[in-house]
Amino acid sequence: MKETNVNTNEELEMNQDIEQQGFDRLGLADDVLAAIKDMGFEEPSQIQAQIIPTLMLGNDAIGQAQTGTGKTLAFGAPMMSILKKSKRKVAGLVLAPTRELAVQVSDELARIAKKTNLRVLPVFGGAPIDRQMRALREGVDIVVGTPGRVIDLIGRKKLNVEDIEFFVLDEADEMLNMGFIEDVEEILSHASENRQTMLFSATMPPAIKNLAKRFMKPDADHIAVKNVSMTVDKVEQYYYEIKHRDRFESLCRILDATDYSNVLIFCNTKVNVDKLTDHLKGRGYDVDSMHGDINQAQRMRVLSKFKDGAIEILVATDVAARGIDVENITHVINYDLPQDLEAYVHRIGRTGRAGRSGVALTLVTPREYMAIKRIEKVTHSKILRKEIPTVEDIFESKYSSMVNEISEELEKGEYKKFLPHVLKLDEDHNLAEVAAALMMMRYRDEVSFDYTKNKLDEGNANARVFMTVGKMDGLNPLKLLKFLQSNVKVDSRDIGDIEILEKFSFFEVRRDLVNEVIDACRGKKLLGRKVAMELAEGRDKRKSRPNRSNVDRNRGRSSRRKKMY
Fold first, then answer.
1. pTM for the structure as a whole
2. CB 500 within 8 A of CB 489
């Protein structure tokens, strides 16, 4: 087995020419490249750049990289590029250890395939098997499933893997930890020997190596990407939970309430960089932009201005930021949540350099909350929650900043040439009022956004409700709405944000209806489960409850092995 260790040294990355890092040099099909562009990716991650070319050659391969490095795209893009539409034949099979991961992988593969005519189907326990069998009968090209449900479908002769062209084992070490290796071996015993096999894992314990030797070709490539180390001890990390519609105002409030010198703001796409830069300029912020479409000469000019302090805010994509080496960046702001953990680590590593401290701020919607928890787990760091600043917070911040500046000017003594003019003002005005007026003029100059309310969510007429039914019960927003409407007279317009987590959910309802909704629905059955419902308090505390594994309760298998599907 050929083994390749990929160097992730950041200095090597910064010396690479940005134009040479695109996906278009990896040999992928045009429709797949178009889908990747729509997804907002500009350059491949280390594992993608190294393994996609060998997969495009049809080789078996092991990809060893930590979670969050874009492994789904690493195997999905070449598989979609090579596969051709086939009638009623499953050509690709992807195994994932949990149903949550199976759904996540299936969704991403569907996005990669959106410009093709290939169909992707997730199969897992806890969902009606008859629907999955019906979809298989209608014709599916790629199946993403958990081992238990895949074995079930093979046993029922509804899923034929004898002619598959691609087999992917995702999160192989997790499969081992959860006792699924025997199931994987059973599935592979039914699969075509002419298949292309891909195995992805964060670690390579002996059992996984043995599995690879047994079921992969002898000349399989083993590409290992060294883990990105978290060398950001001096970076304070925070996140703000926002609503998508309030993203821009949230950023403006954060900027206006923050004492910064140089700020680097990240967006995931070039379009978002241009849009955000224009909006910030329109509000009077001192800002410029960098991304892959900007030529080298212009990039150097912008970077020089940023280093010299001629501009305070720079908006950039991950690609453009590879060449940014500025020591005095005080804040990094993730306007868009990065696509993978590598990007997050590289982004926040732009601050806190040369012995200085730095601050990293990330804007997340409720749906993105769990991504923050995954980042914390993998990077062994703590990302603390902050509230969006109020107008009072902004005022106090600006006032403190102005007082500090005034104190510095008084110490310099250069103000004395203005004293005769000020004394003339004293004849007609109170000098305290004059000082206050000057501060108000300065405040108006520095706060460009026209804030109409103190708190961003002020005037929100919705209350937040907690309920004890979640994804593991098969709940989705439509089922929740139908449940509410069957028990109490509410319109869909009365319901606000819905957030469905693994074991429980939150939804917003008009405040004047909240008691009526809770009283009418509490104790009723939803998806076979008795509902407990209450006004939500201590939301973060609830979210911090550990998720227990979804254990296979239906298959009468040996109790010594966990079964999650």
1. 0.55
2. no
